[in-house]
Amino acid sequence: MQFHDVQQNTEAWLALRLGKATCSSFGLFMANDGKAFGEPAKKYALQIALEIDTGRKAEYSFSSEHTERGHEQEPIARMLYEEENFVSVGNGGFFDWGDYGDSPDGLVGDDGVVEIKSVTAAVHYATLMRQSFDPAYRWQLIGHLDCTTRDWVDFISYCGEFKEGKQLIVHRLHRSDYTADIERLRQRRADFIGLVHQILNNIR
Question: Does domain 2-203 have CATH number 3.90.320.10?
Answer without folding.
Answer: yes
